[in-house]
Design brief:
Blueprint lengths: L20 E4 L2 E6 L2 E6 L8 E4 L7 E4 L4 E2 L1 H9 L3 E5 L6 E3 L9 H11 L1 H16 L8 H23 L18 H24 L15 H8 L5 H13 L6 H15 L2 H13 L4 H5 L4
Parallel strand pairs: 1-5, 2-6, 5-7
Antiparallel strand pairs: 2-3, 3-4, 7-8
Helix pairs in contact: 2-3, 3-4, 4-7, 5-6, 5-7, 5-8, 5-9, 7-8
Length: 296
C-alpha cells in the first residue's frame, strides 16, 4: 500500500525511461487517494470519464483550453519531476510551464559542451542543415550555410504557393507588426508562431537549454528556433499555405485557420515527438556518433 496521502514514497522513473508527453484538455487535473486523475465531461479529444494518469511514466503533461489544475496535482507533479505546460489548442501556443528539473543533467551538459566548442558547434549546425535539406552540406562556414538556407527557402515558398494555388509576391515580414501583409505572409507568420510553440514543448520536455542555439544566436529562444526551423521547409509551409488557401475562400481569420490547421498537422504527423527525437539525435551523448556520421 502507498504510504502518505500523495504517495510520495513511490519509486521515481528516470526521464530517460519515460514515454514523453501527455495531452489533456477540457477537464480537471486532480489527486485522489494518492493518484493523479483527469476528470472530463468530454468535448475534446478524450471521451467523458475519470482517467488515472501515470505521472511517473511521462516527462510533461500538456494542459489545453477548458482545463483546471488543483494544488495537490501541482505538488505531486513537482515531487516526481513531471513538468506541466499550459498550451493553446493543439499546442499552437505555449503559455507557461513550471521549471522542468530532470533527474539527470546529461542532455543539458552535452548541449553546453557542443555549443561551447566552435568545431562541434558548427558540426551540429551542419547536421541541422542536413536534416532540413535532405543532403550532406559540405561547408563549415555558418554564413555560407545561412546563405544556402536563404536561397532554398525562397524557392520553397514559391513551390508551396504553386502547389496550393496561392498568388505569391515574396516574403515580407514586419517584426513590429506581424499581422500586416498579404494573406500568405500573415499565414506564414502565424504558422511560424505555432511551430515555435511546439518547439518550446519539445525543448521543455527534455530539459534542454533554450538560449543555446547552434544556428540562431541572439534570441533567448535560439535553440527553440533551431528546432522549429528543422520543419520550416515542409510542415510550416503546409500549415501556412493551406491556411492561406482556406482564408481566401472563407470569412474566418487567417490566424484562426492557421492555428487550427497546425493543431491537426501536429497530431497527424507526430511533430512534437519527432522534435524530441531529433533533439536527442543531435545532442544526447550516446548518439553523437550517429549525429555526425556522414557529415564530415
Amino acid at each position: 500500500m502507498l504510504s502518505g496521502r500523495l504517495g510520495l514514497e513511490k519509486a521515481r522513473i528516470p526521464h530517460a525511461d519515460r514515454h514523453g508527453l501527455l495531452w489533456l484538455d477540457r477537464g480537471r487535473l486532480e489527486v485522489e487517494d494518492g493518484c493523479l486523475r483527469f476528470v472530463t465531461a468530454g468535448g475534446g479529444d478524450l471521451s467523458a470519464g475519470d482517467y488515472q494518469i501515470p505521472h511517473q511514466a511521462i516527462s510533461i503533461v500538456l494542459i489545453g483550453p477548458g482545463s483546471s489544475v488543483t494544488h495537490d496535482a501541482l505538488r505531486l507533479l513537482a515531487r516526481h519531476g513531471t513538468a506541466l505546460a499550459a498550451i493553446g489548442e493543439g499546442a499552437v501556443r505555449f503559455y507557461t510551464a513550471p521549471p522542468l528539473m530532470p533527474d539527470s543533467s546529461a542532455l543539458a551538459r552535452a548541449q553546453v559542451a557542443l555549443w561551447a566548442d566552435p568545431k562541434s558547434r558548427i558540426e551540429v549546425a551542419r547536421a541541422m542543415y542536413a536534416i532540413r535539406f535532405g543532403e550532406i552540406v559540405r561547408t563549415r562556414d555558418i554564413e555560407v550555410l545561412r546563405g544556402q538556407e536563404g536561397a532554398r527557402i525562397k524557392r520553397s515558398y514559391q513551390l508551396a504557393a504553386e502547389r496550393y494555388g496561392i498568388p505569391w509576391r515574396g516574403r515580407h515580414y514586419d517584426h513590429a507588426n506581424p499581422s500586416v501583409g498579404d494573406v500568405p505572409n500573415q499565414a506564414l507568420n502565424h504558422a511560424a508562431s505555432a511551430m515555435r510553440a511546439a518547439s518550446c514543448v519539445a525543448v521543455a520536455a527534455l530539459g534542454a537549454i533554450p538560449q543555446l542555439g547552434f544556428v540562431h544566436e541572439d534570441s533567448g529562444q535560439a535553440f527553440v528556433l533551431d528546432i522549429s526551423d528543422l520543419y520550416r521547409h515542409d510542415i510550416t509551409l503546409d500549415i501556412a499555405f493551406g491556411a492561406a488557401r482556406e482564408a481566401l475562400k472563407s470569412t474566418e481569420s487567417v490566424e484562426r485557420l492557421a492555428r487550427r490547421r497546425a493543431a491537426i498537422l501536429f497530431r497527424q504527423r507526430g511533430v512534437i515527438p519527432s522534435m524530441i527525437d531529433k533533439i536527442k539525435l543531435l545532442i544526447v551523448p550516446d548518439r553523437l556518433e550517429t549525429r555526425v556520421e556522414g557529415v564530415n
